[in-house]
Fold these 2 entries.
Entry 1:
Amino acid sequence: MSARLAEVELRRVQLALVSPFRTSFGAETDRDVLLVRVALEVDGERIDGWGECVALREPVYSAEFVDAAELVIDEHLVPRLVDGPPVSAASVAGRLAAVKGHPMAKAAVEMAVLDAELRHRGECLARHLGGTVDRVPSGVSVGIFDSIDELLSAVQGYLDEGYLRIKLKIEPGWDIEPVRRVRELIGPEMGLQVDANTAYGRSDIEHLCRLDEFDLLLIEQPLAEEDIVGHAQLARASATPVCLDESIVSLATAADAIELGATQIINIKPGRVGGYLEARRIHDLCVDRGVPVWCGGMLETGIGRAANAALASLPGFTLPGDISASTRFYARDIVTDPIVVVDGHVAVPTTPGLGFELDLPHLDTVTRSSTLIELSS
Ligand code: OSB
Ligand code: MG
């Protein structure tokens, strides 16, 4: 296939969350999403593909943020794909490698090219990546609340909806007691894990070991992104498996963290590692090293969630992902076929491309800005 990049559109979409989502890094009340549409010209035919950038409004989860992502795509990434050899999803990362960092921006561009390419070939993402199941277990990420009663009622609601695993956001002052009470509510069999989003330091290792009594699946990213040695210390001290999220920004960082004993499980987020193709390489490495993985989430719309469900259908994804129903965060999604949870599972999309169709009239009503980059040479 010989494709040329004919057009790129950058769209900013604003979606209200059904309820505020509070983590140790802040409270999100709405989502400012950057979408990338590419038009590929293949054998005289134009075919559209869409990608979703997972960068948040502010640089509080990682260094990226949505305004910067839009700028770097426009001024630094797209120009590198315009001239030169034909564009293919497999070559995007290499052509963008001279630009340091910005994995979420790069991932969004690669995603759009991949979507167009797969639609052209009539192939779905799960098949392209090597997925082996037609549905994946669904977990839900539960934010921090003002009171334990509010937390328990939210968790009860998710149990009623059938989620198979609960993840609680924690921070200093909101850890041992909320976890104890949720464990009492959900019983000993239900999967439970916690995510601190870097809110602790090495001096908290002893404190974090108190979570061992709750039989958690894992503790996610308690220490700073850079603190690989601290995570290795915690992994040695604690019975709860340590799982890195923010620290894993590439195949190489994953390999090093495993080697150093800093991560016993890995949360794979395609945006954080520069795209779905790098995500698959990390999956393959983890399978080879015997490290279980699961698919994280970034409050994606139906575009990103469809692609995440496809990724999670690979055999190394042995733990439930943060692939909750669209209604977990959004009253109305921008796709015609939003993710639903049935018997605790999400269906792996089988339609060509990433596995979604846009609800274009609705998308237009929630679009705040749209910039068309004309590239025709
Ligand atoms: O750390 O996993 C995280 C959302 C935004 C940023 C970081 C994280 C999260 C979540 C939400 O936990 C998971 C989801 O999208 O369902
Ligand atoms: Mg996390």
Note: The first strand starts at residue 3 and ends at 23.
Entry 2:
Amino acid sequence: MTNPLHTILQQMPKAELHMHVEGSLEPEMIFALARRNDVTLSYASVAALRAAYDFKDLQSFLDVYYAGASVLLQEADFFDMTWAYLLRAQADNVVHAEIFFDPQTHLERGVDMATAIGGIDRALRRGQAELGISSGLILCFLRHLSEDDALATLELALPHREKFIGVGLDSSESGHPPEKFARVFARAGALGLHRVAHAGEEGPPAYIETALDVLQVERIDHGVRCTEDAALTARLAREQVALTVCPLSNVKLRVFDAMAGHNMLQLLEAGILATVNSDDPAYFGGYINANFEALFDALPLQRRHAYQLARNGFTAAFLPPALKQAYIDRLDAFFLAHATPVGEFG
Ligand code: HPA
Ligand code: ZN
């Protein structure tokens, strides 16, 4: 039987705060761009590429993800990728999106900052104008590279300062603690940029603490391993630090063995500002609504949790208070119009 909450999950207005735009490249588009740009892929077909999407951990995913991104060469490629994501997001009733990109992945292939950021930004502006989706772009540093490389990358981005709202930290977590990037995050803070970091996905809860205390981040991406540390869990709830959780990613990368073992309910019951996001939707089996559905199908989550999760997304967004409130009002109106049927609790 399909879960009666699916309609609400699908139709409620939502924000997406953790989505790597390179991770929205569908295999068909990877092959189309490879042809357009004369790039040779090490996969013979769309089916062969899809067959490689059987990950055992974060690194095994990253290897395939960086191979996929190798087809991005021209401004139009970055535009097409981002526009395809926005159309897909609109179908899932995403009304606000804060998306990541990895400039170093492109710089090291000779694709300059203006090309990548320009194409993404052009799509985001068109998304606002034509789809009514507000958005922000967050530049992520690759933690497997040096801090000096991250510092140089930030300087290269500064001529495009008005095209991004913040910085983040992604790629291989284990062995690359947040504190490795103290100086570049301090510089970003001095520039008035928002700061986020992946932490507590594969790495230990201590990485969540140093992301907060050393990097001064405003949100934690993933952060699900916080529940291994009761004091940290209590702190995240007390300080209302948002976690941008990605359920399908967590299962695909074996952070949890199965969705039924996901700790989302535990996070919500602890009072943590948890949100639902798609991470790398083309690789992990679905966009944001698929993440909501998989979570609600596997866990005893109810209508009030759907409301809470959607509300948390707007609360945690990097938006001015009035805009945030306008989105929450829209969410409230949606839930009022979809009143709980008699006899159904939740
Ligand atoms: N974790 C770390 N790095 C990433 C991810 C992720 O989930 N997606 C793309 N880069
Ligand atoms: Zn991520």
Note: The longest strand covers residues 134-142.
